[in-house]
Design a protein that fits this description.
Elements (H helix, E strand, L loop, with lengths): L4 H13 L3 H13 L1 H24 L1 H7 L1 H25 L7 H10 L1 H15 L2 H10 L10 H33 L3 H24 L2
């Protein structure tokens, strides 16, 4: 159904494995709330892929690319959101009342898992570069004999599976690293670093053309 399936597969695989915003978010959330937190964040990120695939299929991304004002507006909102997440991550490490026990209790109530999903989902759909990438990549593999919409969703599903496995693996590695280095000081340093990375990524998105 998809033209040059293996070329598409390799392109998506390389894209997924390239360190960037998604990796930073998963590491940050795993450090904050554990493996489930990181995987839930990854799930939110991957669900956002279907939004971009749909936009690409129906041509909404064309408007995003053709309108400099709209592109700038979406980019600015996304950048500010990333900077906000980074600052919140750094600030949380200075909270004297934060502890692993508190995090575990809240996790059982499900509140941070929903928060992690929202953070992952919003960071993805508010990233215009992902929309532009999908607009540029997906049409290269569309078979004109079949539905473009169905093929776009199929490619997003493949990307979803690859990304969930990759980012889930990262979350597991970070969780194991936390167990080996079960120090609150180390955990806070990791969260500060990933928070700083999010701020830098947001700032880079804000100033990029």
């Amino acid at each position: 159904m998809i033209t040059d399936f293996w070329a598409f597969f390799i392109a998506i695989l390389l894209l997924t494995m390239t360190p960037g915003l998604d990796t930073a978010l998963v590491i940050r959330n795993t450090t904050r709330g554990g493996w489930k937190d990181g995987v839930t964040c990854s799930f939110g990120i991957c669900c956002g892929l279907f939004v971009h695939a749909t936009m690409s299929a129906v041509g909404l991304s064309v408007l995003l690319v053709s309108s400099a004002e709209l592109f700038t507006a979406v980019k600015t909102i996304g950048a500010i959101y990333l900077i906000y997440l980074g600052i919140q991550s750094i600030r949380s490490t200075f909270n004297q009342y934060q502890s692993q026990n508190v995090n575990n209790v809240i996790s059982r109530e499900g509140q941070p898992l929903l928060l992690s999903f929202k953070e992952g989902f919003l960071s993805n759909i508010l990233n215009p570069k992902t929309a532009v990438f999908y607009l540029a990549l997906l049409p290269q593999f569309i078979n004109p004999e079949y539905s473009a919409f169905a093929q776009s969703l199929l490619m997003a599903s493949i990307h979803f599976i690859i990304a969930m496995f990759w980012q889930g693996g990262i979350a597991l590695l970070v969780e194991k690293a936390k167990e080996l280095m079960s120090s609150e000081k180390v955990t806070k340093r990791i969260e500060r670093v990933t928070g700083a990375v999010l701020v830098l990524l947001g700032a880079n998105l804000l100033v990029s053309k």
